[in-house]
Amino acid sequence: MTTITEYMTGVHRHCDEILAELEVAVSEDDWDKAARLSADFLQAMEHHLTMEETVLFPAFEQKTGMIGGPTMIMREEHRQMRELFQQLQWALDGKASGEFLDTTETLLILMQQHNIKEEGILYPMSDQHLGTDAPQVLARMQKV
Amino acid sequence: MYGKLSLQQAPPLSVPARFFLTAPVFGLAAALILLFTGKDLFSSRWTPGMLAVTHCLTLGFFTSVMIGATQQILPVLIGSSISKPRFIATLIHGQWLPGVALLVISFLHFKPIIFIPAIILIAGAVTTYAGVILFSLYKGISANESAPGIRLAMIALFITMVMGILLVLGYAGLIPLWRPALTNLHLSWGLFGWIGLLIMVVAWQVVPMFQITRAYPAWLRRLTIPAVAVLLLLKSVLVWSDANAVINTARVLVDSAIATVLLCFALATLYLQHVTRRKIRDVHRDFWRLAIFNLLLTLCFWISAGITGRPEFALLTGVMFLLGFAMAVVTGMLLKIVAFLIWLHLQAANEGLQARGRPGYIIPKMKRVIADRKSNILLFSLLLAQLMIIGAILYPSDLTTPAAVAWLVFFSLLTMVLARASSPSPSPPQKRGRGKILLQYPCGAAHQGQALKISFCNLPAAISRVTITSRMIALQPAGTPKHEQT
Ligand SMILES: [Fe+2]
């Protein structure tokens, strides 16, 4: 049986990989490919963030009673990521490769330090606290 | 139940920044000592200048950066923040800085009387630091796999310090001087147990993260920490035994095993970097490559020293481990961490403005905080300085002064880059790189097409306390009046 930790960690790796390819495309000035990968990346990320915000975090808050703590900081970081997504789109529209790679660099570090906290702490805690409800929460997440 | 769970992004910027900004100053001091003590320095491992230079680097530079960085990354790794971080940082830094400075001075002038305050201050700083980190690890929420490694590194630091104190007391003539056995142990615990182990543990986290590689092999991560602990203990026992055929063989075996641990780490890193999906050129990765190459070189020198028994190879081993391997890793990491932290704090300042109803800004991102060009120059300067120091050890009379100058240049550049990172260049469109025109941000209600430049410290102020002042200059887009204070 897949745990929330395993499933969501897999999603993180998938997003990382698209981002890596996207950076290559931009550095090679292949803007068609960049546009395609960019759309994939932003869509995958947005889907992932929504999954957490609409299903996982509420379930976590309800089970643990920790409202305004860890999940609030995670939401806050999601907002910072979305700001960079916006700037990424602008850089793509303007075909500004320097700006684009500056944005991906910053986004990458922001995402990674966020992921460490989720994969190391928040997801395992969710699995543990949700217990027998975990598969059902995971199923709801996958439907988002 | 879980204790206080905290997923905060970071302690206040001033916590790591004070360690990061004072570290290169010790590097500068080391280069100056090398310059003025000249070629006599390399005549023996025990010259006062040599002791002063090594401690300037190992304590003043490396340990300072590592103390700052662990306080920064630990909360992210284990989900519990250090309480009263600013107070703790002040307590550590306030003892550390004068302690290391006094130690270096007392080595240079051989004044036993200064050794005592130096020892007390350093012991205070290390005990506070290791204590706080071990306590957070104990309280930590997540069983992050790097926790045992960090714990062992802290213990190694403490043991290194205790042995150092015994050596200094012996040096000052207060107790018998157990040289060379204790010196060799002091070196092994410090270089392998503290600096080497912490770098490896940090690498397991940051290489996959920043370079989007696969994880380090699980067996390697599982075996390394017990291996380091067992090997250091064996070495500590063997060093006191009388030399005979069996003991000598055992010593060689232990050293070979230590070399194997380092070799596995080096090869794993090279392999991961080779198969990474992040194929774009990244200065950070190049620093890591240089470091790994230097680590392999270190091992070659070590083997040569074992076979030939020539003292210059032993010296080269230590020098390449510190100035080649550790210096490249630490510099690369430092540039990346500082750029990210400053972005993070500009971001927070920006959000603070927005919360007070001010318009949003586009803040400079990492490559504008520290431009790739600057990192490239540092990489090149480091490479040059490393080649020069190898030359200086082999041909001391000709190359010592040029090597000292090369290191002086490197540390000056590093100090400048770090100090200037706190006032990033503004964002408005300008030509950059391969003749590309930078993006013009769309002007909208939310984003005013402005860049936010926060002039938040100059170096002297930064050393004591880095904060963002309220003086923020908003740079207007082209065509509008020059600039206004917000
Ligand atoms: Fe998230």
Biggest interface goes to: A-B, 42 and 42 residues
Distance between the termini of chain B: 46 Å
Spatial arrangement of strands, main beta sheet of chain B = 1-4-5-6
Number of helices, counting only DSSP H or I runs of 4 residues or more of chain A: 5
Number of helices of chain B: 14
> Low-confidence stretches of chain A at least 5 residues in length (pLDDT < 50)?
none
The hetero compounds bound to this protein are: fe (ii) ion
SSE series of chain A: HHHHH
Large-scale geometry of chain B = globular
Which range does the strand content of chain A fall in? under 5%
- Name of the CATH first level of chain A: Mainly Alpha
What is the end-to-end distance of chain A?
Answer: 20 Å
| Class computed from helices, strands and strand pairing of chain B | mainly alpha
Give a count of the beta strands of chain A, DSSP E runs of length 2 or more.
Answer: 0
Average residue pLDDT of chain A = 89
Report the principal-axis shape of chain A. Answer: elongated
Provide the domain count of chain A.
1
Major pleated sheet of chain B: 4 strands, mixed
**Could you state the oligomeric state of the chains shown?**
heterodimer
Short recap of the structure:
By secondary structure, chain A is an all-alpha fold. In chain A, 88% of the residues lie in helices and 0% in strands.
If you had to describe this structure to a student in words, what would you say it looks like?
The complex is a heterodimer of chains A (144) and B (486). With 144 residues, chain A is mostly helical. Chain A is built from 5 helices and no strands. Chain A has a single domain, classed as nmb1532 protein domain like (Four Helix Bundle (Hemerythrin (Met), subunit A), Up-down Bundle), CATH 1.20.120.520. In chain A, 88% of the residues lie in helices and 0% in strands. In chain A, helix 1 (4-27) packs antiparallel against helix 2 (31-64), helix 2 packs antiparallel against helix 3 and helix 2 (31-64) packs antiparallel against helix 5 (134-143). Chain A is elongated. The longest helix of chain B is centred in the C-terminal third of the chain and has 45 residues, at 311-355. The two termini of chain B are 46 Å apart. The chains are: A mainly alpha (144), B mainly alpha (486). Chain A binds chain B through residues 16-17, 19-21, 23-24, 27, 66, 69-70, 73-74, 77, 80, 84, 87, 90-91, 94, 96-99, 101-103, 105-106, 108-110, 112-113, 115-117, 120-122, 124-125, and chain B through 2, 5-9, 76-79, 141-142, 144, 205, 209-210, 212, 276-281, 336, 340, 343, 347, 362, 365-368, 432-434, 436-442. Fe (ii) ion is lined by residues 49, 52, 74, 78, 114, 118 of chain A.
